[in-house]
Each structure stands twice: as C-alpha cells, then as structure tokens.
Amino acid sequence: MEINARPGQPFDDIAGDYPPSTPGEAAAAAVQAAQLSRCTDVRPALTELYRRWIERRGVRKEWLRSPTDAQLAFFIDETALPLLTLDELLVRTSDLNGDDNSFRTRPMRDLLAGYGLNENAVAELDNRVTRLRKPGFDAQRLAEIGALLRRHGYQATMNHCEPLGYVTKSVFGDVGPEPSDRPVKPGYPGNQKPPGWADVVVAVLDTGITDQPRTDGWLDNIARDATIGPDNNIDPLYEISGPPKFDHGAGHGSFVAGVVQQTDPYADIRVIKVLGADGIGGDVEVAVGIWTAVQQGATILNLSLGTETADDQPPLATLVALELIAEQRQKDGADGTDVVLVAAAGNNRNTRPVWPAAFSATPTVGVQVVSVAGLTTRYEPADFSTHGFWVTCSTAANGVLSTFAKGEETPDMDPVPDSWVDENPWAVWTGTSFAAPQVAGAIARRCQQTGDTPTAALTWLLSQGVNVPDYGRTLRILPVN
Asked: Under a CB-based contact definition with an 8 Å cutoff, are residues 166 and 176 in contact?
C-alpha cells in the first residue's frame, strides 16, 4: 500500500543525530521485512516451534508466578494461529463466588461442578482474578470449559501467553536482530535535562534489561534493581541456551528501552521484567507488571508484546489490571494519575485483534490504550504489520536501530547466526515491537517539554500525523533508511 501524504514528523530535532544506515543494514532490514511479509499458512510451523520450546523449557520458570505449577502449553483455535498459554483458566473471583449472577443462566460453580478444578486467587490483583487448574487437564480441555462459561455469560479466558513478536517471527527465519555496522552511532546527550523540562516515568514491560556495562552512555541511567517491578529486572540472556548463546527473547527489553531513550533521552525509564528469556510471559504476569508499574509511579507504559486470543476475547488479568488503574484514578479525583499504555499491534499480517493493543477499541476500561502498527523504511504501511480499525497510530517498524547485548544467536534463531562482541552493542531489528516504544518515547518527550499530561501529549502527537485506514495516524519519529 502506498500513501500520497507524508507522515507527520512531530520532532524535527531527532533526525540530525543519526548517521545514515550502511548498505549492509539496509539489506538486512529488507530481508527482515520480506520474510515477515510471507503470507503462507504458518500453523504447522508454529505448532512445531511451540513443541520445541515447551520441550526446551522442561519445567516452569519462577517468573511465571504461578502457585498452581502451571505448565507452558498451546491449544488450537480454529479461527487463529495456535495459541500459546499456560494450562490454567482465569475467571473473575466475584463470578466464582456468585456476587453478581443477575443475568447469568446458571451459577458458575454449578457449571464447574464435576470438573474438580483447583482454585487460586491472584493476590497481586486484589484477588479479583482466580486461576482454575487441574493436573491432567490439558489446555485444550480448559479452553473448552472457558467457552462453556462464556456461553453462559461469564468472562473466562486462558492464561494466554503474550509473546514477543519475535516468537511468531521465528517460523520464518532470518528476522532476528542484525549487528549494526554503522561506524558512528547516535551520541548520548547526557543525563542533564534541558531547563524547564518536567519529570516523567516510562515503564518498559519486557524481558528485562541487560546488566552488561556500556561505555557510550546509553542505558546507563536505567536502574538494574530487584525493587523495579515485582521481580529482579535483569534480562538473563542465556537462561535456557546457556552462555554465550542467546535465548529467543534475549536483548529485546534492552533494545526497546534504547528506542524509548533515543526518542526521549531525559525520561526516567524503568524496565520491568514480565517475560522470560525466551520472550514468553503469561497474562497474569503481564497484568501484575502493569499494575505494579503504575503503583511505582509510571504514567506511560510500553508493552512490545501481545497475542491473539480464543474468540478474540480480551485477556482477563490484563483487563482487571486496567480496571484497577481506572478505579484508582477515580478514587483520587482531580489529582488522579493520568496513565497511557502503548502496545505493539503485532506482526501477524492480518486484522485480528492482538491484545493488549486491542484494548484501544475498548473505552470502557477507563485507561487510554494506544495500539501501534508498523511502517516501512519509506514510511508506508508495512505488509507484515497487524492492522485494523482498532489501530491508533503507526510509525517505522522496519530497520530500527537500537541498543543490544553481547552474545551469539543460535541456528534456530537465524540460519546464519550473528554475534555481538563490542562493548557497546547495537542492532537493527524489524517489527511493531520497535514502533511502539517510539510512540511511548514521543509522548514522554512532549510531557517533558510542555508539562502536558500523557493523554494531552498523545492528543497533540496524533494531531501531527496523517490518517491512513487501518494504520491510524502515521508518524515519523526515529529516522530509518
């Protein structure tokens, strides 16, 4: 698709900091986009890929935060890709306890009678969500129970895993990060805010951040701390593959944080680990990260992750986290914290909703959610990007340059594995994961420059864009070429 109007460029002073890409980087970006745009049936490949990951993982990881010993699994939804999940069903605790059955045909406990499901409420979400699980019940069977509950008027979703776009990209090969061969990278401007700039906290919910030291200034002022978010926020990089071989999600959080920092170098960026080193995290873990980030002062949240869901239902735990944020703001009245959540629209080449980005079309949640699709290096709609009426805006997602980590790819990540050995590693990567943090950073930059609230800053940012159907307001933020 070509567009005649040039996307809006809200910040004219960013492009001057960037040297042009090299022929090698341009070629790598072209390959990444071409591979992602392949419109073939990926079900068999994804099914095999999920089987391999489940086998490699072996046992659950502590970051899954599941007291039920839930296992990574997948089930087949006839209208979607195979869906990665934990083998547990999520319901509202109030529904389970019969607090409001006025319009339901039968009490939930009656519907569940005979299944013998174990119940475990999620304390970090004010006990408003309960996990249902039974050893021996596979994910497919639990998904069928969830469909039964929905037919009777109850909200029930699997604990869907919200993987990085790289997870589904892996079926194509050669779409992972490529080392940047630019002799000069963007210079770090320093930590001293310009006079008059306000404070703003941006939370990056992702794989965590590398603790490898750098000497170029980038990422240095981002805390590596067990008190940031619900857990330690360090990206282990090699947790499953073993050093120096990267796991599938390694370095993603560091790359995303670098994109935010390039867009707004003076924002207080806090990286919260909600995904494992393989780039996979459950709905409950993501929801807890969202609620924790807001409680710790973040007003702009970036989530470069997402999933399609069974019957296109919103993931329940994340929905409850947004409800908690909205309730807190209402309770605080005029002094309530204004929060904007920015999420990647996905790389599925279709129009099916990807969550949490698709909450942008669910105004009843009471929190402003921004869904971000991808543009090419020519700032035209990218064929690989998920798109649709629910997309808020879009920006360059092809050939984005950012900070990375030292290590090596494995052959199942890239047929010709790359390695990063420099003390200041940079990479070029493609996907809507890297469009979203540009928008988050742009909102933060506007807040700092003008003192606007995040919602007001978003309104201004969108006013700078050009509208394209299914891609929202198109914007030029970081330069790609």
From this structure: yes
SS3 447: helix
3-state class of 270 per DSSP? Answer: strand
Q: Which of 200, 206, 196 is nearest to 257 (CA)?
A: 206
Number of residues that this document lists for the chain: 481
pLDDT at 75: 77
The whole-number pLDDT of residue 14 equals 78
> Strand runs (DSSP E) across 236-375, as ranges?
268-273, 300-303, 340-344, 368-375
Q: Which pLDDT score, from 0 to 100, does residue 166 have?
A: 44
Q: Between vectors from CA 368 to CA 281 and to CA 156, what angle results, nearest 5°?
A: 45
Residues 123 and 216 in one domain: no
pTM reported for the whole predicted model: 0.92
Q: How confident is the model at residue 169 (pLDDT cuts 50, 70, 90)?
A: very low
Please tell me whether residue 276 adopts helix, strand or coil conformation: coil
- Of 107, 125, 160, which closes a domain? 160
Is residue 162 scored above 80 in pLDDT? no
Q: What is the mean pLDDT of residues 269-286?
A: 91
Phi and psi, residue 97, nearest 5°: -90, 0
- At 45 the pLDDT is 65
Q: At what angle do helices 283-295 and 316-332 cross, to 10 degrees?
A: 20
CB atoms under 10 Å from CB of 455, counted, come to 16
What is the number of domains present in the chain? 2
Q: Is 238 left (phi over 0), alpha (psi -120 to 50) or beta?
A: alpha
Q: At which residue do the structure tokens 């591979």 appear? A: 35
d(CA 24, CA 179): 9
> What is the tens place of the pLDDT at every residue in 427-479?
999 999 999 999 999 999 999 999 999 999 999 999 999 999 999 999 999 98
Q: Following CA atoms 450, 16, 36, 84 in sequence, which dihedral angle do they give, to the nearest 10 degrees?
A: -40
pLDDT-derived band at 240, boundaries 50, 70, 90: confident
Angle CA 198–271–33, to nearest 5: 105
| Residue numbers of the domain that contains 132 | 43-160
Q: Does some domain include residue 264?
A: yes
Instruction: Give start and end residues of each alpha helix (H) in 152-223.
Output: 165-169
List, in sequence order, every beta strand (DSSP E) within 114-258. 118-121, 129-133, 156-160, 178-179, 201-206
Final residue of a structural domain among 113, 129, 160: 160
238 falls within a domain? yes
The three-state secondary structure class of 72 is strand
Distance CA 253, CA 279 (A): 9
Same domain, 340 and 396: yes
- pLDDT computed for residue 262 by the predictor: 95
**Which residue, chain included where needed, has tokens 């590398």?**
210
